[in-house]
Write a structure and sequence with these properties.
1772 residues, elongated, 107 strands, five-stranded antiparallel β-sheet, alpha+beta, single chain, 17 helices
């Protein structure tokens, strides 16, 4: 029933849910339909285009611009305007500002400051801030940028500025640095207890190392307190202390009349006598301050008359009279107020009496006795005054008599001197020194800080509440003087400007720490202008003539055998000297021109302000072009010497050659061009057989004997065709007998042409021969035909060149010297001069010798040579002009040093020189030998320095008696005061100088005032100590110093107590021992001065300075005393250096071998290359000239490659006639049939005269080699006999398969018996690259630059060759291309340049510089040189050492240093405002940064400027505060921390550096802790910061805790700086605690085992026990038990003892991972062991089965403990 009802309820609930879902579905459907309807309704919007350009007629506002406006559908397409709402239509036109170019000067972008960097995460919602900040957070910063009007800054439209310049960016990326927490040091040790009894406090403090930056954590408390109690106090604790306040302002006391006028009628006392009436005291204070203010308004005017007396130091007036107490008081009190003076602080505070009531009471009671004493003193003073007046009158009388005795000039000088002395005295207007007084407040303070009544501190003695002081006065100066005249008195528009000065003087020197004086001199640039100013003298550079061009030998042209280098040519270097001269006109002449060779006097080079012209330049020596001739032509026929004059019967055979290159320079001679051989029967014209016509049989038969008619042409001796009539005298060639063979006759081939003559001439052993041959083509037919001749008849020989071998030619000698030709009239000799030709002055004459020479014999009579060809023996020439040497006049003497020398002993020299402008040539006048003179300067004057002279201290001025008379124990004529002295300026020689000179050139001004003490009657006065007496020798005897009693102290017995007032001091003489030690490194090796050497060509060359050889190096010596303090070198008798010889190795140049011979041309036909090379013999070292670029393959050769052209006809194949037929199938009857013919084919050298000698076959083209044998058919009788085939005709170009070529043969014997001749013409198609070829030119690469024979560099020629190349790629003779008339558009030659070897030229060494340090060990002297001419090509490179150094003389570094501040002391009171002091002492060091220095006598620092660390303001005392007992106070500021850089991992983050200092709180009483001030921190930026890293450090675990601290990278333990997120754990504890044996709590907070033990865990992960880890011991080679494998337990407690020497040789199987869980392999091993165990058990069960025994249960029982015992054992 319950089940049924529950089902019904479920159904009802389900039906209700379905209804709700249906309702929601219907609602959503309605919404979707409405949305779809809305979406289907069209949506239109207005869209606009960009504004167009602003248009208008005028610039500025008033223009208009338009834009496009259209209606668009929401989907993007354009529609009608009516579809959009017309009311919302945007404007399409607006007013605008038309920008013009001149608006650029009126408008500009105004850039605002960058705003704060905002993190990107704050601007972008999706960007998350980094969890850990490393380098910083990325941010963005913005700024405002707008276009403004430049004049008033009004905003303008941005489009105006955008017209000229794009709008600057409005935002930029930035980096927000990570927060940096405050970093503090460790605490100091606890201070001692603040109280000796009772409850006190101990403090320990720390200081700030780095301030909090960028929002980092603030600094923690710098102080920690703890209570302490040494012992209980026996009596009442002292609760009150006297406290003194700070001294008030220095005030001037009122005059006596003012005090009496303000004196109240009666004095009112308080009940306790502690305080005066406040109203009267304040009224008096206000009145005094009011008067002071009135007087301060007086500006610079004089104050009260009594001030002068105080300023004069208490001088008496001019009137006589005794000095009464009133006058003395007047002098003391009339220190009237001056500008800005005020009273003490008491005037600004509530009135407080700082004198005891009892003082006033005693004063009233002692009034009568005081009056009596006063009367006695007045009488005594009157007597003294009378004595002084009488003495003064005597002195004045004496002075008047002395002045009368002097002349008026002397009196005037004395008057001026007195006036100057008066001005220098403190009483002068500039030294307005005023003394005043200042007071301080004394209060009684409770230990809790409350101020109580003074009576509560009555047990303490009251301190002094006044002291003398100096009224502070600022420096005051006069108005500026007028400007001085300009230092440059001439006008130079583009030259440097002069300067002018104006000065002012000091009218009031700073007194009492007043403001220092401003600059007293002002300087500005100026220039003299106007008509009155003359133009300045201008100076310009002038240059001498260039020296002769000097050529250095290229390394590749070096040849040891070529000793004479004078013939070198090509590129080189020439130099000249430049000097400064005074320009003759304002426009300086061209520095490089020498058009005016006037001798202008040289001046100092510093006067020429422009850059000097270059002194070296590249030059070129034209190389001589030697005569180049062609090869000899063939010998011509025997002809007359002159065909026009044939009277002489002598004839000559001649051969000629031509000049290919005309000679220039050099010898200028060509070899002979004609050689002649005498001959007989000469003729000028002869017949030439051109062709023999066909053989025509006689009697018009078809065969048989006949004749051949020759075709002839008339030629002259040169082989040229001439008219036939000229050969009328010559013998006409006769017809040649021939024979046309009949069908049965023997058929012979035609004769071959005559061969070349075997010899060019005939002699006794030589005879010229020519041969020709023919061959048998067919044999005769038996007896019927004409027989074939025998073999000898097949060859013919004839003689040729029968003239004797006597070759003659004309030989010419070289042209002689050009001499004056007397035959030319004198009028013509000056023609060259008149034309301005400097090179030549007249025409001369040269001659040479001409002789007739027979080859291989020598000179023969001239008639043997053709007279018409005789060369000239005389020719005209140009005589060069004589040039005399031109030198400038001597320059002025160089100036002697104008600056004075400190020692005044060193003498310098002055020089004057003259310069050679033009060297002599062609026998001109020689130059003078002496070009410079020198003399010593006069001794320079001593330096005019300035020094301060201090005058005697004036009388000590006390605080006015009216101020101190109520002070207890005060005496009227003694006590502390102030005194003044005069300071004047003196020259070093003692002469007077203006104060301004010392202010500018001397040290700081000595103090004008000092505290002093007027001794009271009972005081003892002693003089100052004398200097110690000198010691006779070191370490021997004693030295003493003394002082004496002065004044009335000599008579007082208490002053004669020598124990209290010793009058002498004795000390042992110092025992000084000195030793010298070398310091620093050895200097560079320095060659002796003046090491110039001569150049290669005997001329001095600029920059050729000795660079090697023996020099010296130096090491500094330092002298030390027995305390290791550095002292002057003179103490050690050392000159300051150790000198040692050294060697600078000389440079060795690259050495190459000589050139090899040229190789053979790489091609036998056409263009190729030929090569020659050099091999590397020795590499350069020590800066020698480098090797040329070596071959990159073997690095050992230098190649020179030139093109070569091999004549394709140079080597030709020569074939001998065919041999007689050898018939293979011999027909003995007919002697015909198939047969073979052979011939010899040889490669011959082809010359002009024909093939001359046989050469190797490879030199000839193998493709063109004729056949040496041929198979053919020997015609039988009556067969047709044809001649050999003619060469093939040429194919027409371009080659085409449609074209053909043919060859033909002629019929030598007609056939008989009805036989026919074969075809006499053969044709074949033309086939490309087979029998038809195309030809084209091929251009080779450029050769290397070819120079003349003796040229080493400079301009040369590079060449290339033309090749004629066949279409199959074969190079052929150029004639094939020439015959086709192909275009030759290439340039075969081009000029080129071989870089000249320019050696590096260096300037002379500069003078040695000043020492780099004024003292110490590190000082160096430097000298430098520069490159005058950089090396080029393979010239000698520059030396690597461009600067040298040597050590300075070691000097001790003396400096003033402060001692530590003394403790703060408040005089006369327990606490309050006080002073602390320190001294300056002289220290010596060696200048090294790490040395602190040693204390020495102050006299050694006498020459040092009184300054400490560069600060001339020496502060030896400063105000401080002594804390009262129980007071809580701040410590002094710590020193500034080291400069710390914001960095990460050593990288600068770019946020700058900072340093910090701090003040910590110190408390003395637990009750006052709440009154302590706040600790203070100051930070400032700095430079050159140091990068520190912070890391956590941990100590060893001690039980469950360990130390964790932060350490800076410099080793200092700090608080802060380390990231807290990375802090290691310092405390660990496990829950539940680890109680198992060998267990411990791990860092993970779980229990683990000690090392050597493994954990056995329970099923719920809790440590069950710690078991020993089994050890698998792996034996080693040295183990005696290597053959035994043991598993043993390993005791971690004694590893070495149990297994010595086995460290590192064992390994452990760790079943547990770092997380304490079993490793995976353990499960696998366990499963395998389990399966194996089951298997063994099963086998055991089956083998040992007993009926009905529960083996399985027993096994389970046996396995259970085993599993527990070895659960973690991997080996089981």
């Amino acid at each position: 029933m319950w089940m049924r009802s529950s089902t019904a309820g479920t159904w009802r609930r389900s039906s209700r849910m379905v209804a709700v879902l249906l309702l929601l579905l219907a609602c959503s459907m309605q919404e979707l339909e409405a949305q779809a309807a809305a979406e289907t309704k069209p949506f239109y919007v207005w869209q606009t285009g960009p504004w167009g350009r602003c248009m208008g007629s005028e610039c500025g506002p008033g223009g208009s611009q338009s834009r496009a406006v259209w209606c668009a559908h929401s989907e993007g397409w354009t529609t009608l305007h009516t579809n959009c709402n017309q009311k919302e239509r945007p404007d399409n036109q607006q007013d605008c500002f038309r920008v013009c170019d001149w608006h650029k000067d009126l408008y500009d972008w105004q850039l605002g400051a960058w705003n704060q960097c905002v993190p990107v995460s704050m601007r972008s919602a999706g960007v998350q801030r980094p969890a850990v900040c490393a380098r910083g957070e990325e941010g963005i910063q913005t700024r405002e940028v707008g276009c403004v009007h430049k004049t008033n800054g009004e905003p303008a439209d941005d489009t105006i500025c955008e017209y000229f310049e794009p709008k600057p960016r409005l935002e930029q990326a930035c980096l927000i640095p990570c927060p940096r927490d405050c970093v503090v040091s460790e605490f100091t040790a606890w201070t001692s207890c603040s109280k000796t009894c009772g409850m006190g406090l101990q403090n320990r403090i720390r200081f700030v190392l780095a301030p909090p930056l960028f929002g980092g954590a603030a600094c923690p408390n710098l102080t920690e307190f703890q209570t302490c109690q040494l012992r209980a106090c026996e009596g009442n604790e002292s609760l009150y202390s006297l406290k003194v306040g700070p001294w008030g302002l220095c005030s001037v006391p009122l005059s006596r009349q003012a005090r009496q006028a303000e004196k109240p009628p009666e004095e009112t006392f308080l009940k306790d006598g502690d305080k005066l009436s406040g109203d009267k005291q304040s009224a008096e204070s206000e009145k005094q301050s009011g008067e002071g203010e009135k007087q301060s308004k007086g500006g610079k005017k004089e104050a009260a008359k009594g001030l002068k007396q105080s300023g004069e130091g208490g001088r008496k007036g001019k009137e006589g009279g005794g000095r009464t107490r009133e006058s003395e008081e007047q002098n003391k009190e009339d220190l009237g107020p001056k500008e800005g003076d005020k009273l003490s602080r008491d005037a600004d505070k509530p009135p407080r009496v700082n004198r005891k009531f009892g003082t006033r009471l005693r004063r009233k009671q002692d009034q009568p006795s005081r009056q009596a004493n006063r009367d006695k003193r007045q009488k005594k003073k009157a007597k003294n005054k009378e004595k002084k007046e009488k003495k003064r009158e005597k002195v004045q009388e004496r002075m008047r008599e002395r002045v009368k005795a002097k002349d008026p000039e002397t009196r005037e000088l004395l008057k001026k001197k007195r006036t100057k002395n008066r001005q220098n005295r403190p009483g002068g207007k500039s030294w307005d020194v005023q003394f005043g007084y200042q007071t301080r407040e004394v209060t009684c303070v409770h230990k809790n800080g409350d101020v109580e009544a003074l009576s509560l501190c009555s047990q303490e003695e009251m301190p002094v509440t006044f002291q003398a002081c100096v009224i502070t006065k600022d420096c005051d100066v006069t108005e500026w003087s007028d400007w001085s005249a300009c230092s440059k008195e001439c006008y130079e528009p583009n030259g440097p400007q002069g300067h002018r000065l104006r000065t002012r003087k000091v009218s009031q020197f700073p007194i009492g720490g007043g403001a220092t004086c401003p600059p007293l001199e002002e300087k500005e640039s100026c220039s003299s202008q106007g008509d009155a100013a003359p133009p300045c003298i201008l100076y310009s550079w002038k240059a001498t003539e260039w020296t002769e061009c000097r050529v250095d030998v290229l390394l590749s042209h070096q040849d040891r055998r070529r000793g004479n280098q004078t013939g070198l040519c090509g590129g080189g270097v020439q130099s000249r000297e430049v000097y400064c001269v005074q320009s003759s006109s304002p426009t300086a002449p061209s520095s490089g021109s020498l058009r005016s060779k006037e001798a202008v006097r040289p001046v100092d080079s510093d006067l020429c302000l422009s850059a000097p012209p270059h002194t070296t330049q590249l030059c070129h020596i034209n190389c001589p072009v030697e005569c180049e001739v062609s090869s000899w032509s063939a010998w011509g026929p025997c002809t007359y010497e002159d065909c026009e004059d044939q009277t002489a019967k002598k004839g000559f055979k001649m051969r000629r050659r031509k000049i290919i290159n005309e000679p220039t320079g050099g010898t200028g001679n060509c070899p002979h061009l004609v050689e002649a051989i005498p001959c007989e029967e000469p003729s000028c014209f002869d017949w030439l057989v051109v062709k023999l016509e066909a053989c025509v049989p006689d009697n018009e038969k078809e065969c048989g004997p006949g004749t051949q008619i020759p075709q002839v042409q008339c030629i002259n001796s040169d082989g040229e065709y001439v008219g036939r009539q000229l050969c009328r005298d010559a013998i006409l060639p006769m017809p040649v007998i021939c024979e046309v063979p009949c069908p049965k006759d023997c058929a012979l081939s035609p004769w071959t042409p005559w061969s070349q003559c075997s010899h060019t001439c005939s002699g006794k052993s030589t005879e010229g021969k020519q041969t020709r041959a023919r061959s048998i083509l067919a044999y005769n037919a038996g007896e019927g035909g004409l027989q074939c001749p025998n073999a000898s008849a097949l060859q013919e020989v004839r003689s040729c060149n029968e003239h004797p071998c006597t070759v003659h030619h004309w030989q010419t000698g070289s042209w002689g010297q050009c001499i004056e030709d007397s035959s030319i009239p004198a009028a013509n000799t000056s023609a060259g001069r008149l034309r301005g030709d400097d090179a030549s002055c007249s025409v001369g004459m040269q001659t040479r010798k001409v002789i007739c020479v027979r080859v291989n014999v020598g000179q023969v009579p001239p008639k043997k040579c053709p007279e018409s060809l005789r060369p000239d023996t005389v020719r005209p020439c140009l005589l060069p002009c004589k040039k005399d040497c031109i030198v400038t006049p001597y320059s002025e003497w160089s100036p002697c040093p104008t600056t004075c020398k400190a020692d005044g002993n060193t003498k310098k020299k002055q020089y004057k020189k003259r310069v050679i402008i033009q060297p002599p040539t062609n026998g001109g006048q020689d130059c003078p030998e002496v070009l410079s003179q020198e003399r010593e300067c006069e001794a320079p004057s001593l330096c005019q320095g300035y020094r301060w002279k201090t005058h005697k201290w004036r009388r000590c001025q006390l605080v006015p008696w009216s101020v101190r008379q109520d002070s207890p124990g005060a005496q009227e004529t003694c006590g502390p005061g102030m005194q003044v002295r005069a300071v004047s300026c003196r020259k070093q020689d003692g002469g007077q100088a203006d104060i301004e000179a010392c202010l500018q050139f001397s040290t700081s001004m000595p103090p004008l005032t000092q505290p002093c003490q007027l001794p009271c009657q009972e005081d003892c006065q002693l003089s100052s100590w004398t200097k110690f007496s000198p010691c006779t020798a070191d370490c021997v005897g004693v030295r003493t110093r003394k002082r004496v009693l002065i004044g009335k102290s000599k008579k007082r017995d208490q002053c004669k107590n020598h124990q209290m007032y010793p009058l002498s001091e004795t000390q042992y003489c110092p025992c000084n021992k000195y030793n010298a030690q070398p310091v620093g490194n050895w200097s560079d090796c320095i060659l002796p001065e003046g090491g110039r050497v001569e150049g290669q060509l005997g001329m001095k060359v600029q920059g050729d300075i000795k660079e090697c050889g023996q020099g010296y190096r130096y090491q500094a010596m330092a002298c030390y005393d027995q305390d290791s303090r550095i002292v002057e070198n003179s103490r050690c008798n050392s000159h300051g250096y150790i000198e040692e010889a050294c060697i600078i190795p000389c440079p060795s140049d690259c050495k190459l071998s000589e050139w090899s011979n040229w190789s053979r041309c790489s091609k036998s036909c056409g263009s190729g290359v030929k090569v020659r090379s050099k091999w590397l013999r020795e590499k350069p070292y020590n800066g020698g000239r480098p090797c040329p670029k070596l071959d990159h393959v073997n690095q050992a050769q230098v190649y020179e490659v030139v093109p070569c052209l091999s004549d394709c006809g140079q080597y030709i194949w020569v074939a001998e006639p065919w041999s007689i037929w050898k018939v293979s199938n011999v027909d003995l009857k007919d002697n015909c049939g198939e047969g073979v013919q052979t011939r010899k084919v040889r490669c011959m050298l082809n010359t002009v005269d024909g093939p001359s000698e046989q050469v190797e076959d490879y030199l000839c083209d193998p493709e063109e080699m004729p056949l040496g044998a041929r198979n053919s058919r020997l015609p039988c009788p009556e067969d047709c006999v044809l001649s050999d085939w003619e060469p093939w005709s040429l194919c027409s170009l371009p080659c085409s398969s449609n074209s053909t070529r043919q060859r033909s043969a002629s019929v030598l014997r007609q056939p008989g018996g009805g036989k026919e001749c074969p075809a006499t013409i053969e044709t074949e198609p033309c086939k490309l690259n087979s029998n038809c070829f195309h030809y084209s030119y091929n251009i080779t690469d450029w050769s290397t630059c070819q120079l003349s024979e003796r040229a080493v560099c400079g301009n040369g020629i590079k060449t290339r060759m033309l090749d004629c190349v066949r279409s199959d790629g074969k190079s052929v003779d150029l004639k094939f291309c020439k015959e086709l008339g192909l275009d030759r558009k290439w340039q075969m030659n081009a000029s080129c340049v071989v870089e000249c070897p320019v050696n590096c030229q260096l300037s002379d060494w500069s003078p040695w510089s000043e020492c780099s340090y004024t003292c110490g060990l590190a000082g160096k002297l430097w000298r430098r040189r520069t490159v005058v001419q950089a090396p080029q090509g393979d010239g000698r490179p520059c030396a690597s050492q461009m600067e040298q150094w040597k050590p300075c003389l070691v000097k001790p570094c003396y400096s003033w240093r402060y001692s530590a501040w003394s403790e703060c002391k408040s005089e006369g009171a327990r606490c309050g405002e006080g002073l602390r002091f320190r001294n300056v002492s002289c220290f010596v060091s060696d200048g090294s940064s790490g040395q602190e220095g040693s204390l020495v006598d102050d006299e050694l620092c006498g020459e040092q400027e009184p300054s400490v660390d560069g600060d001339t303001n020496i502060v030896l005392q400063e105000a401080c505060t002594v804390p009262c007992p129980g007071e809580c106070y701040l410590t002094h500021w710590t020193d500034w921390s080291p400069c710390q850089l914001s960095c990460l991992n050593g990288d600068d983050l770019g946020f700058g550096s900072v340093q910090v200092r701090s003040r910590a709180v110190v408390a003395q009483d637990p009750e006052n802790l709440l009154q302590c001030p706040e600790q203070q921190l100051e930070a400032r930026p700095c430079t050159e910061g140091q990068c520190f890293e912070y890391k956590w450090r941990t100590g060893l675990w001690r039980a469950a805790s360990r130390l964790v601290w932060c350490q800076r990278s410099d080793g200092q333990n700090v608080t802060g700086g380390c990231p807290m997120s990375a802090k290691p754990m310092s405390d660990r504890s496990c829950d539940p605690p680890c109680t198992k044996a060998r267990s411990l709590c791990t860092e993970a907070g779980v229990c683990g085992c000690e090392e050597g033990y493994t954990e056995v865990m329970t099923s719920d992960g809790v440590l069950d026990q710690c078991t020993v880890i089994p050890v698998l011991e792996i034996p080693t080679a040295g183990d005696n038990k290597a053959d035994v494998k043991t598993i043993r337990a390993f005791s971690p407690a004694q590893p070495e003892a149990s297994s010595p020497g086995r460290a590192g040789r064992t390994w452990f199987l760790q079943p547990f991972g770092p997380d304490g869980k079993l490793k995976t392999w353990v499960y696998g091993v366990a499963a395998g062991a389990f399966v194996l165990l089951i298997f063994i058990s099963s086998m055991t069960y089956l083998a040992c089965k007993k009926p009905k025994r529960p083996q399985r249960r027993q096994m389970n029982n046996r396995l259970k403990p085993l599993t527990l015992a070895y659960d973690g054992d991997a080996d089981m």
